[in-house]
Amino acid sequence: MGGYSVIIPTNCTTTITPFHKKIEIPITRGVRQGDPISPNLFSACLESVFNKMSWQHLRGDEDDENDKAKLLPGIRINGQNLTHLRFADDIVLVASNPKAASLMIQEMVEMCGKVGLRMNTNKTKVMRNKFASQSPVNVTLNNVTTCIEEVNEYVYLGRLLNHNNELEPELHRRRRAAWAAFNNIKNTTDALSCPRIRAQSSI
Rounded to two decimals, what is the model's pTM? Predict the structure, then answer.
């Protein structure tokens, strides 16, 4: 799980033709954050990357069922092979073992690099269940191999996930977030002169 940032090459230009005169403009930055076209461009770019990735090299020896099962990307659910979940730049890769996970991540990093996307290793985490091997999951960026940090829980799409699917940690997290938001406006609510409004705002 992790996020991606966009790399803008320094030699990109675009050409416009106002009043029949061509003007070449250097591109030094991407779309401004908050621009409504930004997520559409990013999703279209990432979609093309995933369409090109089949992780064929993970399928093992076709004549050896055990070997093929060991490196098969993703997991089988209702006859379908689930390899990843994706929402904008929040991506979850699903693998049957750490070796397959490392190979999947590495291929994704290389394919994304070709279109100017770079993985944020600080936001990328590994979660595994009790049946998985304890081997590390590694990724190589700029000729430097990094072991991806392993965690027992992770917030994905606003929901705290854990191996036991327990809701109590998520409820505690939301309570803390609610109190933190309330404390940000506490000075304002304390200054209210109407007792009824103060009582309602403190509920």
Answer: 0.64
What is the enclosing helix (H) or strand (E) of 14?
A: strand 13-16
User: Going along 114-158, which residue ranges are E strands?
Assistant: 117-120, 125-126, 138-141, 144-147, 149-150, 153-156
Cβ atoms 49, 13 nearer than 8 A:
no
Residue for token pair 């993703």? 74
What does the block give as tokens for 154?
């992770």
**Element counts in the chain: helices (H) and strands (E):** 6, 14
- Whether the per-residue pLDDT at 50 is higher than 70: the answer is yes
Greater pLDDT, 54 or 44:
44
Question: Residue 79 region, left (φ>0) first, then alpha (ψ -120 to 50), else beta?
Answer: left
Residue identified by tokens 């659910």 is 77
Eight-state DSSP code of residue 115: T
Do residues 167 and 175 touch, judged by C-beta distance below 8 A? no
Structure-block tokens of residue 12: 């990109």
CB-count burial class (<10 Å; 0-12, 13-18, 19+) for 93? buried
d(CA 6, CA 19): 33
